[in-house]
Amino acid sequence: MRMTELLGLGIAVIFILGARLALGEDEGIVSRAIRQPIPDKLVVLTFDDSSRSHHGIVRPILKEYGFGATFFITEGFDFPINKDDYLTWAQIRELHDDGFEIGNHTRNHLGINHRTLSCLDDELDGIAEGCAAQGIPAPVTFAWPGNANTEEAFALLHQRGILFARRGGAPEYPYDEGRGFAYEPGKDHPLLLPSAGDARPKWTLPDLIRAVEQARDGRIAILQFHGAPDTAHDWVSTGEQSFRSYMKYLKIEGYRVIALRDLQEYVDPAVTPEDYKAVIESRKKSVEAEAVETTSEK
Ligand SMILES: [Zn+2]
């Protein structure tokens, strides 16, 4: 064997060993994060912003299909005075009594960033106290209002007993179409779980299918809805008939639909990736590559 061939072989061996090592580390954290094998077709259903339709329209449909869900409650917007568009606390308690999860979405729907961080504790209290007054346990899940988020809040959320927190489909996808990636246990930070789909008024069934078909090979599709319809926020509203067709699809196709807190059965929220941004960066690259491919096909 010539020197150049030997060198080539050496480089190849180092490359393979390196790749195996990286893969091994990945597999290590994934297996530590997982409590039991994650079935395909596992979907987490979440509803934001205390829309009145969550009680009148969404609740009976979910009960009919036996679906779990999390309702992320905020007293923001004109929740305190407008009961045409927003839930009452008595209705929120009924959702809890039905077995649905009540999650925290801050008292004032406060976008969390470096500047507003100091208000977060109070903002969480606002909803936790409302829950306590109704005999609802303190929320263990959180949805970032307006999907704004900062890792500076992780310590406080953890201290407040928040196990899982949900963001939107950004930064991998732009906000507009409500697209996103499924949650990858061990790779995503438990306090920054992506929405695989964030329903928009223009969505049709293929958009829903695109989101939930990612729920396989150990990944979990988390769906974000607002009202169905959302009578106060038309830019995130889902029409009642569309919503019915989405839920019917999940039922017919045999999806298991759970609340965000139920992830504890499958995932240990205490296991956090060393670098949670790595998976986000690699997804962003895949989105860019896909965009280049579609442009060159045109
Ligand atoms: Zn919201």
Q: Notable features of this structure?
A:
binds zinc ion, six-stranded parallel beta sheet, alpha/beta, two-stranded parallel sheet, TIM Barrel
Question: Can you lay out the helices and strands and say which pair or pack?
Answer:
Layout: H1 3-33, E1 42-48, H2 53-65, E2 70-73, H3 89-97, E3 101-104, H4 120-133, E4 141-143, H5 154-159, E5 164-166, E6 197-198, H6 205-212, E7 221-225, H7 240-252, E8 256-258, H8 277-297
Parallel strand pairs: 1-2, 1-7, 1-8, 2-3, 4-5, 6-7
Helix pairs in contact: 2-7
The structure holds zinc ion (ZN).
Q: CATH homologous superfamily - what is it? A: Glycoside hydrolase/deacetylase
Q: Please tell me how large the radius of gyration is.
A: 21 Å
Structural class: alpha/beta
Overall average residue pLDDT: 93
CATH architecture: Alpha-Beta Barrel
Order of helices and strands: HEHEHEHEHEEHEHEH
Number of separate helices: 8
Output the CATH topology: TIM Barrel
Identify every distinct bound molecule in the structure, by name, code or SMILES: zinc ion
Strand content: 5-15%
Low-confidence stretches: none
